[in-house]
Amino acid sequence: PSSVRNMSTLSLEEKQNDEKLVQPDSTSGNAGGNKDEKRVVSYWGIQASKVTKPDGTEWKWNCFMPWETYKSDLSIDLKKHHAPVTFMDKMAYWTVKALRFPTDIFFQRRYGCRAMMLETVAAVPGMVGGMLLHCKSLRRFEHSGGWIKALLEEAENERMHLMTFMEVAKPRWYERALMFAVQGVFFNAYFLGYLLSPKFAHRMVGYLEEEAIHSYTEFLKELDKGNIENVPAPAIAIDYWQLPPDSTLRDVVMVVRADEAHHRDVNHFASDIHYQGKELREAPAPIGYH
Amino acid sequence: PSSVRNMSTLSLEEKQNDEKLVQPDSTSGNAGGNKDEKRVVSYWGIQASKVTKPDGTEWKWNCFMPWETYKSDLSIDLKKHHAPVTFMDKMAYWTVKALRFPTDIFFQRRYGCRAMMLETVAAVPGMVGGMLLHCKSLRRFEHSGGWIKALLEEAENERMHLMTFMEVAKPRWYERALMFAVQGVFFNAYFLGYLLSPKFAHRMVGYLEEEAIHSYTEFLKELDKGNIENVPAPAIAIDYWQLPPDSTLRDVVMVVRADEAHHRDVNHFASDIHYQGKELREAPAPIGYH
Ligand SMILES: [Fe+2]
Ligand SMILES: [Fe+2]
Ligand SMILES: [Fe+2]
Ligand SMILES: [Fe+2]
To answer: Chain B partners of A286 at a C-beta cutoff of 8 Å?
Structure first.
């Protein structure tokens, strides 16, 4: 019965393909057998439903569903740039430029690793911003204009970038340790920064994305020169960006770069809204974007 | 051009109804006129697209889209209960029961206000849990099994409850001040709690949801007795839960209560997974749930 309320209007087609793996067990009033996963699942009526691809084969991802995948628009303008004018813009710009030095030295031309580390950091701002706007909306009893969702979607998109590059470049133990430290510092710094000045925070992310585009362009050059092997695209990337089955790493970098250009636009736009003395909720957020 | 990449496969129908309000302006390389919102919008190519309802009238919400609405399953079992067995379960249970005392005294029979305040708090755990799982996934380079999305969707659903009750009961200044303080304390407490023991945290939310169901059942009784006026349902509720246009507050409370029963199931289930010594990502998350 609960399958009905789990349907959103548009995913009807998928939902009709669902087959319940476990029938809900209606004995209630006791804690259920904790040792046996199947019984617990039945007790709470939470069952994994079988989702299929459009071609009928089983969907193997839990982190994203077929209706959340998309085709990237590779025609997006990669060269757009926000020329820093105000002191705050310049500070955001030079903070990002300064962060590039240690990164360049650490990774040199290992663009696979670099991409992986970049994405671990890139998935933080959207989550922090989304969370802070969520709490603000609750506290002030006011609408968010869709920005909570827009920022959380950005965070999730960046995380999918990471899940993709993970398949190509396996992180070594000291890289994992480094990421642990970097995340701890960056999360808190961005949290504080966003509280103090969302205008600055979004501008900085805009510039970070501009650097990301640059970095992926270098990645593509190395791939074309043959310095990095153009391996087949990981399965997760093929499903997430609806790529043809014979796609390669190069195709993946292309769509990731388009995503970054999109994040750049969203974040510079968000900063611009603040520059106009408005709050984000006053300008409708980009919807259905990734 | 960017309209193509913003499409997710299933929202195609909606997207075809889109009319771009502003055409992207392709002059690039300068910061754009910050004073003129329209120009900024054009410069970054972020435009609000016109979304319509299935009946062709304009969609007035930015916080949720037509394809995110759903019909509630009112047949969900409202009486399911997790009998606390372990010491930790009992602690979670009695913590929640203890929190009911001051709440009962403060609100007495003002269930409209009570609902509003409850929802401000209820929207916190999903966001905190989702955020922590997101960061964990990034740090450990591992998949999340869909739980990040499931928890963030719960948070968003709770926030929509708040946006709905806000229309019915306007908060007074001291209630707003109280919420500010309560959020500050609860957010941090839950954050710490989730870090220390997600098992405990989810169990506690499960019990909170059981109390929420009880509280909405009392609300319904007061409505039926005529002690609370059964006003027409706010427009936002009619669109979010796909209710008939002549729905009333009673219908809204019914669907909200069903949502809470669903949260109860998800959170007790999450706690059960931890009780089995597993991590959430090892059991696929409920997908497409609200
Ligand atoms: Fe990225
Ligand atoms: Fe990005
Ligand atoms: Fe709620
Ligand atoms: Fe709830």
So the answer is: 6, 46-48
Residue range B47-92, pLDDT digits in tens: 766 788 877 888 888 888 888 888 888 888 898 999 999 999 999 9
CB neighbour class for B35 (10 Å; exposed up to 12, middle 13-18, buried from 19): exposed
Inter-chain CB proximity A70 and B8 less than 8 Å: yes
Q: Where are the alpha helices (DSSP H) in B108-197?
A: 111-140, 147-168, 173-196
Q: Which of residues 150-169 of B touch A (CB under 8 A)?
A: 152, 155-156, 159, 162-163, 166
Test B49 with A265 for CB contact under 8 angstroms: no
| Percent of chain B scoring above 90 in pLDDT | 47
Q: Does B81 touch chain A (CB under 8 A)?
A: yes
Predicted confidence (pLDDT) per residue in B106-130, tens digit = 777 777 788 888 888 999 999 999 9
Q: What are the pLDDT digits (tens) for A67-104?
A: 888 888 888 889 899 999 999 999 999 999 988 888 87
* HSE value, Cβ hemisphere, 13 Å, CA-based, for B268: 30
The SS3 assignment for A65 reads coil
Residues of chain B with C-beta less than 8 angstroms from the C-beta of A161: none
Q: What is the DSSP letter of A75?
A: T
Indicate the helix (H) or strand (E) that contains A151: helix A147-168
Q: Does B96 touch chain A (CB under 8 A)?
A: no
What is the C-alpha separation between A267 and A167, in angstroms, rounded?
28
B153 vs A149: CA distance, rounded Å: 10
Q: Which residues of B fall within a CB distance of 8 Å from A14?
A: 10
